[in-house]
Amino acid sequence: MNESTDVHRKQSLDQLSALEKFTEKGIDFLDNFNRFVRERQKIEMDYAAQLKRLVKSYSPKRKDEEEYKIYSSLRTFKGVLQEVGSIANQHELVAENMVQSVFNEVVKLRQELKKERMDHLHEAKQEDAHMEKSRRKLDSCKSQYRSAHEAWLQAKILFEKADSDDNRTKAEVERAKSTMEQKDQFREKQKNEYILQLKNTNEDQQEHYSSKLPTIFNKLQAMEERRITCLGKYYETYADCHKKVLPVITQCLDDIQVKHGQAVTPAEDSQALITKFETGNQPPKDLPMMDLDEPGGRGQTQAPEKDNVSIGSQNGANSLPGRGKAPKNKKGVFGTIFSSKKEEAKDFSHLPPNQQKQKLQGKIDEIQGKIDQEVKQKEALLKMRDVYTANNSLGDPNSLNKQLETIGKKIDLLRLELNTYQKFMGHTAYKRNGKVVEFKDKADGKGGTPSQKSSPTRSSGPPANVPNSPSKERPPSSPLSPLEHEDSFIDDDDFDEDEGTAADPKPVGTCTAMYEFNSDDPNLLNMVEGEVLDVIEKDSGDGWTRVRRSDNSEGYVPTSYVNHL
Questions:
Q1: Which of these, 114, 112, 136, 134, lies nearest to 212 by C-alpha position?
Q2: Are 2 and 139 in contact (CB under 8 A)?
Q3: What is the pLDDT of residue 337?
Q4: Given the DSSP bridges, would you call strands 544-548 and 554-558 parallel, antiparallel or unpaired?
Q5: Do 196 and 210 contact (CB within 8 A), yes or no?
Q6: What pLDDT is attached to residue 248?
Q7: Contact, 546 vs 528, CB < 8 A?
Q8: What are the residue ranges of helices labelled H in 165-259?
Q9: Which residues pair with 513 in a beta bridge?
Q10: Is the full-model pTM beyond 0.90?
Q11: At what angle are helices 213-254 and 104-164 packed, to 10 degrees?
């Protein structure tokens, strides 16, 4: 092998080694970029988690939810927390997009490039080994040709000496000539092999340096350019992950600034505070003068008259409707002062009148909302049962009966609870012989006596000053309930009680009790399962049916508890 060939081979190996190192560094840079993306994604996730923890720690507790509904400053702050939570969700989305659109793609590209690089380098090494093999074969042919040529020259010299020496026999001369000719034939053979191998080696060398090696270099170059191009796209995708959420984050910040920041109304909060803590009590009257000049008046004063009813009065006659006598204080004066807890009455009688009215109205609205929700669910199940009845292939209609029974019982319990709070509020849902049953007696547990057999009847409309059912908004024409005037009570003189009993109405049908029903309310009729009753008045939509026993005792029972015959 000549010196020029060695130089070229060394240069090609150096170039291949440089490309090998450079492409390895390029793939290592992909790993480096992916670590950057992973850490950046972790920062986004940690930031989102911190924002969510912040929102959770400053979100209103259950005991404070009422205030957050009343005051605009708190209500809007709750909205600010929701917007911050939305911003946290957007940062989580950024992190998710980074993983899916950048990190995973970089991992995939790295695996592809690593395999492709190994294939190209392996191909280059194979080509170099093939070229080296061709050169070694050429060197072997050249060496054999040189040895054969030297052997032929030596045989030729020996033949010439033998031919010129007169002392040699003709046989010796012929033997020397024959050896020379054999060496010459072998020399020619080795020469031809050398010439053929030289031709092949030159062709391999030409193809190696002008075609195969440049092709491999071009493949490595294309691979590296693809890596760089993909990196540029990944940079764009990385930025796009942020840009996609910027409009949403901007909208959240705009909502905080406009929707919530400008919605804070000090006047509304002040009015809400006044409404919450106003007692409705009238200011006390002027203190009377103590006249010492009057005989018998020395050191005596006339007690001021009570112009309003005390909320904590223990006198049952002066307590608000829906309250019984106040419990005696067993803790003494200091026990009352230092007591850390207030015993809350079911009718909220521990609160001032206006606050009591708000609490009762809120409770009524809450129960009414639950009733409406259950009624809607029941109506949906009834429609589903009708569909199943029309087409049995869709389902078994009897499979819904248990759910309907459960919902019916729940509605009945909610209506009983609603009636209780309506009575506390000054409402009643029943009339005895066309007359109002006083709600105060109901709240105190003073129901009708067993001798009063006649059951309540429902008129076509509510009493003049006792609404039939509570509502969130009072109709303009509805009179004020007793709780809206502390000193107004419903007394027996307010109504014209008719001590006589009305004629017993005729039954309009019969029904069978499907379940047992018990209640302490004298207007309701207890019944046992399987009992047959006369229907005096059908359900008018309020969930109650008026029935009568064979002993002429009457009352209302839940409609869902009976089966009309």
A1: 134
A2: no
A3: 35
A4: antiparallel
A5: no
A6: 94
A7: no
A8: 170-207, 213-254
A9: 562
A10: no
A11: 170
